[in-house]
Design goal:
- It is built from four helices and ten strands.
- The chain is an alpha+beta fold.
- It has one domain: Mannose-Binding Protein A, subunit A (Mannose-Binding Protein A, Chain A).
- It has a four-stranded antiparallel β-sheet, with helices on both faces. Strands 6-5-7-8 form a four-stranded antiparallel β-sheet.
- Strand 7 and strand 8 form a beta hairpin.
- The structure holds calcium ion (2 copies).
- The site of one calcium ion has 7 residues, from strand 8.
- This is Ladderlectin-like.
- Keywords: Disulfide bond, Signal.
- Pfam families: Lectin_C.
């Protein structure tokens, strides 16, 4: 009888311990940007200095569980510009995720989000170069705004990804 009581006590203690540790784990879980990514308004951004075509740049972002960056506000755009300035010490032009390659004039973001905010330069997008400009570059011209560019030009790029769950 004594043995049974001890066993029950032991089981109770174990259950309490596992509940407590479960609570602790949940308490310490949070969403963070992986090493090398910069948190901006709840998402993670990465400047890629390697010169790539738009499609190569998007594939590179995909290999890091991201996409070429979508931009949803002027404040967010300024933070991305600051990220490029900090990494390259210059306001370099870079690919971001906008493209109208599927149908001329219909712009989509590579990450599938809806394009509401835009920051086109005056006169852009102009689909210039014999109607072959279908990919979005940022930091264009003295105004550092957006331009549609020929997709197979090689320039740096900016990726975006969701924060990942980190427990510990
Ligand atoms: Ca176009
Ligand atoms: Ca253009």
């Amino acid at each position: 009888m004594m043995g049974m009581q001890r066993l029950l006590l032991l089981l109770c203690s174990l259950m309490l311990l596992s509940t407590a540790s479960g609570l602790t784990l949940r308490f310490h879980c949070r969403r963070v940007c992986p090493r090398g990514w910069t948190p901006i308004f709840g998402r993670c951004f990465k400047y890629v200095p390697t010169h790539l075509t738009w499609a190569q740049a998007e594939r590179n972002c995909l290999s890091m569980h991201g996409n070429l960056a979508s931009v949803h506000s002027l404040a967010e755009y300024h933070r991305i510009q600051w990220l490029i300035l900090r990494c390259s010490h210059y306001s370099r032009t870079a690919w971001i995720g906008g493209f109208d390659a599927v149908q001329e004039g219909l712009w989509f973001w590579a990450d599938g989000s809806f394009m509401r905010f835009t920051n086109w330069c005056p006169g852009e997008p102009n689909n210039a170069y014999f109607g072959r400009q279908h990919c979005m570059q940022m930091n264009y011209s003295g105004r550092r705004c957006w331009d549609d560019h020929v997709c197979n030009v090689r320039i740096p790029s900016v990726c975006v990804r969701k924060r990942s769950r980190f427990c510990g």
